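In response to the reviewer comment on reproducibility (Comment 2.3), we provide here a single inverse folding case reported in full, input and output, so that an independent group could reproduce the run without further information from us. The structure tokens appear first.
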């Protein structure tokens, strides 16, 4: 299983070539599944392993997300594991209040490309990654950030304490809002009439695969031509409208943790390398073993990204260094030197560190504390920066066992602060008081 999963967005489409034996199942609007219970409405997204469709559940008259796995044995194996984890998650969440996606049903579907395991999940909205982009990477109002953090922590606390599960790939892309940002995309709110059978003739595929290869090529070519024209216009100084301001006011930011394709039982780990690079905990980089607290590290990276619009760590293997070295250097620049007691516990100690516990190859580090970073680069007020850093820093402890648990984080006073600014906390003038309720 890959940990740096790439998945579907409006801009990209899944590989056409993957619709073959062992690969994706081609779906058309109106196709029915599981003996006619579910009917495909439109495509929602895709991942390396699956395509996900909005479907109508004729039994409950509800919209659901239908995840159809590729059919080759390794994908089927991965789906079985995901179903096992999702079933355990659903079994303990009878009130649907734990901020984790709910598995409703699962079954096999046989098509021309083989037998596909299918998961029926509750239908959710856009990912936090989309929300960050929608907000133009500006950094969200801290009250929104708090609300989102509370949901993620409720989800993690449930997974960790009640289910003994490590998610291992927590990041904005894997946290979905309960409903879409754009209400017109919400089939319930927009009063969407479910399609019950395959439309005659036409290509009502909602971005599916019944479009022919030639049609796809033409569409792509047309898109590129449009892109070229707008690029030319912009470079000539025409049509350079500033992007309009967008407000998150009124957007319901309650959300749930999804994508358990890489999750594991805390006592049955089978992968050394987990997590998507930018959200990867130091113990995973140095190979000293991980526990639930690796998810907490990813949580802190995610919270920072929501509040600033930028990723906390962006290792890129600059200047001939490896991604791992660059990553460790960035962590130390922000959090101070990694104690030798910790670094020397990693199987990869000798790859990265000298005998004093300093990085072997990157010698000059530019130390910058988290609260200074928030003030200097992200223009937080002193008070907001201090409060937020007090919440985040303990979670970013190099010592995994010293990090607070999700349960402890839920008790942190920062989650119960209220900023008295409705637009963007960054604009709070220094000295403006934060109210405590
Ligand atoms: P994979 O395991 O193949 O990576 P994911 O579970 O990440 O598949 O799902 C792929 C995409 O489908 C997601 O990025 C998201 O856009 C969409 N999606 C997944 N689950 C849901 C859901 N419950 N509701 C709405 N959209 C979903
Ligand atoms: Mg995925």
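Designed residues, in position order:
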């Amino acid at each position: 299983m890959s940990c740096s999963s790439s998945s579907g967005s409006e801009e990209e489409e899944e590989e056409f070539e993957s619709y073959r034996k062992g690969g994706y199942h081609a779906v058309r609007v109106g196709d029915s599944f599981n003996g006619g219970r579910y009917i495909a409405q439109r495509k929602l997204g895709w991942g390396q392993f699956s395509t996900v469709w909005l479907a109508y559940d004729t039994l409950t008259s509800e919209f659901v997300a239908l995840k159809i796995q590729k059919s080759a044995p390794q994908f089927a194996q991965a789906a079985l594991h995901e179903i096992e984890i999702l079933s355990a998650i659903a079994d303990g969440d009878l009130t649907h209040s734990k901020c984790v996606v709910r598995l409703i049903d699962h079954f096999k579907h046989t098509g021309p490309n083989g037998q596909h395991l299918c998961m029926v999940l509750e239908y959710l909205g856009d990912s936090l990654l989309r929300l960050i982009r929608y907000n133009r990477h500006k950094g969200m109002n801290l009250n929104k950030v708090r609300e989102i953090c509370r949901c993620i922590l409720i989800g993690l606390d449930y997974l960790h304490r009640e289910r003994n599960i490590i998610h291992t790939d927590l990041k904005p892309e894997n946290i979905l809002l309960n409903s879409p940002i754009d209400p017109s995309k919400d089939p319930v709110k927009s009063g969407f009439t479910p399609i019950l059978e395959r439309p005659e003739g036409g290509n009502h595929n909602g971005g599916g695969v019944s479009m022919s290869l030639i049609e796809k090529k033409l569409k792509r070519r047309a898109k590129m031509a449009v892109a070229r024209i707008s690029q030319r216009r912009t470079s000539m100084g025409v049509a350079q409208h500033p992007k309009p301001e967008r407000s998150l006011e009124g957007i319901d930011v309650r959300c749930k943790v999804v994508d358990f394709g890489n999750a594991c039982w805390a006592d049955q780990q089978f992968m050394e390398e987990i997590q998507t690079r930018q959200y990867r905990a130091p113990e995973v980089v140095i190979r000293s073993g991980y526990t639930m607290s690796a998810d907490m590290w990813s949580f802190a990276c995610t919270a920072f990204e929501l509040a600033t619009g930028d990723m906390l760590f962006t290792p890129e293997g600059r200047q001939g260094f490896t991604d791992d070295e660059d990553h460790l250097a960035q962590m130390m620049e922000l959090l101070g030197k990694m104690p030798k007691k910790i670094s020397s516990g990693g199987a990869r100690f000798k790859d990265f560190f000298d005998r004093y516990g300093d990085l072997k190859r990157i010698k000059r580090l530019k130390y910058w504390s988290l609260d200074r970073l928030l003030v200097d680069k992200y223009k937080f007020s002193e008070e907001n920066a201090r409060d937020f850093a007090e919440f985040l820093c303990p979670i970013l402890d190099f010592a995994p066992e010293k990090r607070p648990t999700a349960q402890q984080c839920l008790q942190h006073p920062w989650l119960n602060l209220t900023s008295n600014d409705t637009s963007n906390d960054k604009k709070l003038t220094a000295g403006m008081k934060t109210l405590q309720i």
